[in-house]
Amino acid sequence: MMVRMESTSDGEEAPRGYRRSAGSARGEARRRDLLERVTDDLAANGLVDFSLRRAARAANTTHKVLLYYFDGADDLLGQAMFRLRERRIDNGLAATARGHSTLAARVRAIWPVLMSDELGLRAIDQGVGLMMYDPARYARLAREGSRQYLPPLLAICPPGWSDRRKLEVAELILATMRGFLVDWRTTGETEGIEAGLDALVRALEREEAAEG
Fold first, then answer.
1. What's the pLDDT at 1?
2. How far apart are CA 179 and CA 175, in angstroms?
C-alpha cells in the first residue's frame, strides 16, 4: 500500500532546547491533551495529508504551539501512532480478560478489536505503507509497533512456559495476525481470513496441550 502524504514538517522544526514544558506537571498535562486530540484525528482520518497545520486544527491550536511541545511533525506523528497502538493494546487486553482462560481463546477475543477502524486501523495500515515507501524516514513506525505489541502477547501466554517458548509463540501470533489484517484491508474478504484464524487457534490449542 502506497500512502501519499503532505510534507509533515511545514518547513519548521523545534529549536534545540525550545520545549520548556519538560518537568512541569501543567506542561505535561497540556502536551498529553494535545497528543490525544491529534491521535483522535489520526484514528478518524488516517495519515494521508497529515501535517503540523492539520494536526493544529484537530487540536484547536496553532502549529507553533505544537512545536513548543513536540520536536517537529515526525516526532508528533510517531508519538500519536504510539498512542494509537496503546489504545488498541488496552482494548485487546480488556477483551482477553472477559473470562478467557486459554491463550487460544484470548487470541480469538483480540481479533475483533484489531479489526476495528474506531481504534485507528486505517492509520496503522498507512503507517506500514509509509515505512515501505520511505524506510529511511518511517521504518521506526514498524519497529516501534513490534516493540509495543510483543510484551502484551508474551503476557497472555501461559505462565508456566519458558521465556523462549513464549517468544516463539508471541512472534507467531503477531506475524500471522498482521498478515490477516493486510489481507483483509487489501481484499475485503473475510471467509479465508476466518478460516486462517480458526487454524491459528487450533495450533495454539495444540501448543497449550503439548506444553501443559
1. 36
2. 6
